[in-house]
């Protein structure tokens, strides 16, 4: 596996790389990220290259968010990428990605108005901008993203569609701890007491899905199940949002027959955790 830190080196690598499967990350990697790289390796076989990126993107952090304290663990991240089957890791500095006088940014105006986008104004504009830049630089044929951030996945699919990037996007199921908590780089922010309560997020979602599978289709009833479970089992958490939406358009649903998504975000002091569950027959 090779490490590339400059655009010049990356472009030279790309000229002879052939087909490329790409996994963009912000580092602080865990087994959820490793699963994305392993999936890319499986897709690539022996005929394609697996590329990953490690870049903490300042454009997607708000002024009161955790950009400065976001964990940077490059040495450990590289070991994870290599063990999972990456051929190349692109790990540039901020000045390598963004010019000091940059004046162009991509804005998404529909899918980003709800869920995390409503709570974090400008976040997905930063995501779209950096992903577009990485796609232009790496020029992948395929890219793999996790379903944990379902809104991000939907927006990136829209980005590819609307801007005609020749990249096929693949969504991988959320990788979880043994107790159901979605793996996240921000889980390390949790105190022991918060960590003990955090699995209630997944348990609440599963409880609502079980009710839906038993033909409870009303959104108010399904969301009430989640609110009640969290009120009883996640007392240290503060709800940001809990929403029932169409999993393609992300628009709110009052009744869900199929193609639904329940998504939530909960604050635990220093950690903001997200999770979701599909309602698909």
Automatic annotation (TrEMBL):
Beta-alanine binds at residue 60. Keywords: ATP-binding, Cytoplasm, Ligase, Nucleotide-binding, Pantothenate biosynthesis. Pathway: Cofactor biosynthesis; (R)-pantothenate biosynthesis; (R)-pantothenate from (R)-pantoate and beta-alanine: step 1/1. ATP binds at residues 26-33, 146-149, 175, 183-186. Its EC number is 6.3.2.1. Its main location: cytoplasm. It is found in: Cytoplasm. It is an enzyme of class 6 (ligase). Pfam families: Pantoate_ligase. GO terms for molecular function: ATP binding; pantoate-beta-alanine ligase activity. GO terms for cellular component: cytosol. Catalyzes the condensation of pantoate with beta-alanine in an ATP-dependent reaction via a pantoyl-adenylate intermediate. Belongs to the pantothenate synthetase family. NCBIfam families: panC (TIGR00018). This is Pantothenate synthetase. It comes from Prosthecobacter fusiformis. The gene is panC.
